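Q: What does the predicted 3D structure of Chlorophyll synthase ChlG look like?
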Amino acid sequence: MQRIQPSAILEVMHPVTWFAPMWAFTCGVVSSGQPVLSHVLVILGGVLLAGPMVCGTSQVVNDWFDRHVDAINEPDRPIPSGRIPGHWGLYLSFIMTGLSLLLAWALGLWVLYAALFGLALAWAYSMPPFRLKLNGWWGNGAVGLCYESLPWFTGAAIMAGGLPHWSIIVLAALYGAGAHGIMTLNDFKAIEGDTQLGVRTLPVQLGARRSAQVACWVMAVPQVVVIGLLLGWGHHWHALAVVGLLVVQGLLMIRFLKDPVAHARWYSGLGVPFYVSGMMISAFALRFDPMVTGGLS
């Protein structure tokens, strides 16, 4: 039997994609208001769960169900190239799913619930007959939840030892909703190919300019709501900081909207960091809020 190359396993897990959920998990840890030093082991376990385990599993699942397309477009990838031979891509998906759930169970009941939901979305994103990725509305929404909302919730749940405060859940949901627009940025580079393959991304469905406008609104509106909430909760300086970040994003969006196809990757590299910086600022706003630190919801 052909041996699996260890480097191929790491490659099929796409480590570069782990940053987003690990960042969101850190936001959850910060927003919980709980002391970090006394939770070091569970935090490390949560980082492992959010990045290499759940996100890594989603990448393996995606590569397995995309193996036939990758054999044409990217034959050097681990599965179509045979570096992960036979059905081992599928077996690895099952193994990693099981290990992820086991780790989530060890970290707490609400963490397990979040992991179950996230992994279900990960499989539905790639696996027939669901294939959420074939429709930009559903696929991008699933990724936004899995990359931002669920890891944030998980970080807070681990620290709280139960269901996080409702304000944390609201912020996590808002930033996850905004991430739908971030995911759309990745779809401008393959409009022609997606059209031929029947992948109904937003640029395919709406056209480049209109989908870019939708993406910008989807990214901006949740941040406006976050600003309003922070003001209502008395975190005026944090709200002002998020306003500043949103203004910078707006200025960058002007150039992006002029030529979305040419500038999508440019905006993703420059504009998205301001978005995720706002996540952390919002998390710090809740960290010392008596509304959160006074107990669980």
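A (community wiki): The structure tokens above were generated from the sequence. Residues 6-293 form one domain. The radius of gyration is 19 Å.
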